[in-house]
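Re: duplicated header lines in exported structure tokens

Our pipeline writes sequence and tokens for each protein into one text file. With two proteins the header for the second block appears twice in some exports. Here is an export where it did not happen, for reference. First protein block:
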Amino acid sequence: MRGLVLSGGGARGAYEIGVYRALAEEGGLSFGVVTGTSVGALNAALIAQGDLDRAESLWRQITTETVLQLDAASLSALPPGEAVTTAVGFVSQYLQNGGVDTSPLKALLEDCIDEGRVRRSPTELGLVTVEYPTLKPCTLLCRDIPEGRLIDYLMASSSLFPALQRWEIDGKLYMDGGYYDNLPVELAGRCGADEIWAVDLHAPGVKRPGSLKRARVIDCYWDLGPVLDFSPRQARHNLAVGAQDGRKALGLRDGFAYTFARGEGDALLPLLRITRAELEALLGGLSPLTRIGLQRTVRTLFRPYSYRLRSYEDMALRCAEVAGELFSVPHTPTYTAAGFLRSLRGRRAVWARRKKRSLSQEAALRMAGELRNPLDIAKLGTVIPKEAIAAAFLYVLDRADQKR
């Protein structure tokens, strides 16, 4: 059986819906069990009841005010929609009430979630919450939850105390399941899932490293925003990058941090006018000490993707991404190799003309102009690996442009 596991992460949760849409609609994957913690549990309930369009629509329209009851004085203190405005409300209401009131979220769930449909679904729902003050973990399947209380247990799983108020059920207080297991892979396994896909929002909370070995984990390279800053703009971004990462996990797109059309990853190296033989000759000419320095640079920068770097083409693509990030190439589009290089050239030209640049941009531009060989960066890479890799890529790109 195939299982889907969704982590807690508050306002970042739109990313999970983006990933799921890609897995289900473009990958044709169905899941016998969906488990989640906190916002992951809320998304899991929407997925279990088969309401993906409703889930996406909800995220596209969500605001902090539709989820949390912030007092009017806090909200009027600063322009609406600002993350810092939300923070003022949290501090104010935590001091007064032991956390922000989440009753608007309950009203939203009552409008969106049909408990009967969830219970009748062929997809089993699982969630995690923690009893307070005993800190007793509660890992529950929908069938374990008394009739009519599903939304209460979803609220309990999402009560990020002390920022948010604890949730009371039958005289007992509960708080966010992230205090026990923010990515409940083990729960999916206990339900019989032997193929597990997990979406990790990298939010504060406990994760059980041993269980992650059982799962194929999808996560985002880019910033998904603060966990308690609900805004339609951030949600739209997170939905988009979630869908892109889902496609990459399925092998329908190329890329690591950025997204390329399928097959475009291998098209990059020829555009740089550098052959495998030239790369091998350059590597073969390095001294042992320089080679060690280069290896350290590559390991430092490519660590999150080391299991996927299988060829020179992969390495070239990741180097291009490093340069793209440094010069703020937009990360939401799907690129061709040629299109990405055009965007990188344009962004580099913009930053080169500006008087105010980041230290990283300044270092990369300066090094790129001083290199005589792209592997000279091995001398500096252990000190400033990202800038050195970007400089080496810019050097190769400039050389390719001169050959045209």
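Second protein block, exported in the same file:
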Amino acid sequence: MGRIWGEEAKYTAWLRVELAVCEAYARRGRIPADALARIRQKPRVDIRRILEIQDRVKHEMIALLTSLEEQLGTDSRFVHIGLTANDVWDTALAVQLRDAADLLIAGQERLRAVLGDLARRHKDTLIVGRTHGVHAEPTTFGLKVAVWYVEAGRNLERLRRARDVVAVG
């Protein structure tokens, strides 16, 4: 999760959005193909440099764009065309949220698999049932875990639906 939400990851997500827009403009002929090739090769997120610039200009997007200008030279004129900072931020945030949701979904799928195995292994393992904090009729540990398994499935579906909603910037 840290690789998605760290400071460097944030700027990397912004750069990915900027590059995607450059590629779209190149397909439409607004950016020359040779310039796009150079733009794809050169830029990288130099977090130390970006933070130095940000300290001076007091604007995160200007800091990234200035860093890209230093790396790309005259080709930097093709970056950030027709965009506002919020266009980039919102789109990048949607990508980060989607990526985070993918991690949560993968974890929930693993949990569900473990719970399913545990429920099957203990389908005949007797335990004391409980109701309102006191002993009740005997039950099995497998049944108790099977209930968790079903709930984990509902949680998985909720996560998948949330992912679809947040993945739109």
